[in-house]
Structures are given as C-alpha cells and as structure tokens.
Specification:
The chain has 247 residues and is an alpha/beta fold. It contains 11 helices and 12 strands. Helix 4 links the parallel strand 5 and strand 6. The radius of gyration is 17 Å and the shape is globular.
C-alpha cells in the first residue's frame, strides 16, 4: 500500500478545503516547496499535488509545482485543470510522474483513453462520489453517472490508478465510505487509491487490510499533526512473508 501525502495549492498557499469550497480555505502557513521536501525526507516516494487555481485556468502555481517536481526528491502525482491532451503532455514532459483527471474522464472519456494509451501507467482517473453519483468541476456539479460505470468505462485502458473520494466522508461516519472504496476496489483490476478517509493512524491501519486497495491520499491530517508521516509510512510498509525453514 502506498501513502500519498497531499499538498493542495490555492493562490500559492497550502490549503485544505471543506468539500471543495474554495471560498472557505483552511490556510497552512508553510512553504509548499519546503513541505514537499519534508514529506520526501520522511520517506514518501510519491507526493500528490492538487492545484485548485489550475481548475479555474489560472497558472499562478505552475512555477511552484515545477520547483517541487525538480527538487522534492519524490515522484509527483498532479491534478487540477487538465482539459486537453496537450496540457497533460506538457506536464509529463515537465517531470510529473502521473497526471490526475476527473471532470475530463466524465465529459471526454475517449480523450482520457487516448492519453492513457499515449502515457501508459501515468494517467490517474479521479472518481469523486457524492450521494452515490460521480461529481465533477471540483465537486461543484453532480452527474448522472455512478462510480462503477466509470471504472467499467476504463477497464481496458492502461491507467496508473483510480482515486476514489467519497465527498460524504467529510460529513458522516467513515464506515460507509470505507465500504464504498472496498466495493469499488473489488470491481477493477486497476489499482484503487482512497482519498479523504485517513484522519488517524487507526484509520490507516484499517485501510491497509482492505482487499485490492493500493494506496491512500492523506492531506489535512498531516498538516494539523493528527498523523505523523514517518509513523504512517511504517504502518503501510509491506510485511515480509514468513518463509518455511527447510532442513
């Protein structure tokens, strides 16, 4: 299981949003480049970056993201505002290890399939679920599509992963959300990464034993110190299988 520390950028600052509400950000007074380096130094192999300004077509964070890619010492999984194959290609050429698309996968699935063929194992489809349906446009719009249909639509595409976010998890108990992730991870051969379910080390310990779950994205809990990253990485570290001793 892979842990993906999350950095969310808004107007050049690290933030956490409640259900995607950009008008009410929780601001963390830390330098995003330094924070990325801190995550990598703690042992993270991947860092997930969501650029909220890019969702609006604003590239003000581009230099910061490039600096993280160049200096952090970990691979970057980047999401935010990807609406064309050209932009996906530009950021992969800039060094992003993976590109995350959400709205594009719902609105233009053929384009995402083309991107997956062009960049196998580098495209991640984000499946944001609200009240049983897939949401788009930064969680602001709800589609008629159910999450299982998205997984099925990309069954034959060489995606790196699906990221499943249950938006209701910000409001209710996490058990139903964990059940949703468990169900979806059993429906696809593509790795599934859970987002928004890890508020404590106990949450992470439970998720480790969900069949077929490949990873977890953790953001706010790392910034408010509810979770220590080094301890979290120790929890998700694979346990060596015992080997029979032959005499």
């Amino acid at each position: 299981m892979i842990l993906y520390p999350l950095i969310e950028l808004l107007e050049g600052r690290c933030v956490s949003l409640f259900r995607g509400r950009m008008e009410e950000p929780q601001i963390w007074h830390v330098d995003p480049v330094a924070k990325a380096a801190e995550f990598a130094k703690a042992g993270a192999g991947w860092i997930h970056i969501t650029d909220f300004d890019a969702l609006q077509g604003d590239e003000r964070n581009a230099d910061t993201v490039r600096e993280i890619i160049r200096t952090a010492g970990a691979s970057v999984q980047l999401g935010g505002g990807f609406r064309s194959l050209k932009r996906i290609e530009e950021w992969i050429e800039a060094g992003a290890g993976r590109i995350v698309v959400g709205t594009l996968a719902v609105q233009q699935p053929d384009l995402v399939k083309e991107a997956a063929r062009a960049f196998p194992e580098q495209i991640v489809v984000s499946v944001d679920v609200y009240k049983g349906h897939v949401a788009g446009e930064g969680w602001r719009e709800q589609s008629a599509m159910v999450p299982s249909a998205v997984l099925k639509a990309f069954a034959d595409s060489p995606l790196a992963a699906f990221i499943v976010t249950d938006i209701d998890a910000d409001l209710d108990e996490a058990e139903d959300s964990l059940a949703l992730v468990t169900q979806l991870s059993s429906e696809t051969r593509t790795p599934v990464i859970a987002r928004g379910l890890t508020r404590s080390l106990d949450d992470l310990s439970r998720m480790k034993y969900v069949p077929h779950l490949a990873g977890a994205v953790v953001g706010r809990a790392l910034f408010d110190k509810s979770i220590d990253l080094e301890q979290a990485l120790e929890i998700v570290k694979p346990v060596p299988e015992e080997r029979a001793q032959f005499i």
